[in-house]
Amino acid sequence: NAGVTQTPKFQVLKTGQSMTLQCAQDMNHEYMSWYRQDPGMGLRLIHYSVGAGITDQGEVPNGYNVSRSTTEDFPLRLLSAAPSQTSVYFCASTRVAGGYEQYFGPGTRLTVT
Amino acid sequence: DAKTTQPPSMDCAEGRAANLPCNHSTISGNEYVYWYRQIHSQGPQYIIHGLKNNETNEMASLIITEDRKSSTLILPHATLRDTAVYYCIVIKKTSGSRLTFGEGTQLTVNP
Questions:
Q1: pLDDT of residue B100
Q2: pLDDT digits (tens, 9 = 90+) for B47-80
Q3: Of A35, A55, A79, B94, which has the highest C-beta tally within 10 A?
């Protein structure tokens, strides 16, 4: 299994541009989540999904959209990038059948200028 | 979710056991203790979790006190690759997709 994969690894955007961060998992996990991590801080939850067609907001959802059309994919869209969205973005999937432990991707490092 | 308190940093000699404490005095009966770690610049990694009994897996052991107000993560033979920030998270199991990460403990394993 590849686990949780994220693309791209690095991205530089100009203020106002939009883009989609891709996340995919091949473990058939029902739940998926997006977090952001600012320098020197812990992860903060942006959006999460408990199944295909079901999404909900986390702690810091403003400026981001998500959709979950398949179990495998959970893309994160930045609508109009702002410098405050410069961060490292982590996607995760949750193994519900086990102990609800989360498996994280390697992250996307985004810089907005 | 119950609040957790961890020391900001700890040191450990390579080959020795690393014992990382966590206080969670407001834990409720249906909340579990989860441990994750984050090696520099990588995505967090699940280590272990437990409700009230001690747990062990290939990575670590988790000791939860009888009153469940504190726990200790034990890495039995720490290596340099165990240098990371360790997070203790207390949540209901079904909230496993909505983790709240605090400051964690920076564990440095020294040669």
A1: 87
A2: 999 999 899 999 999 999 999 999 999 999 999 9
A3: A35
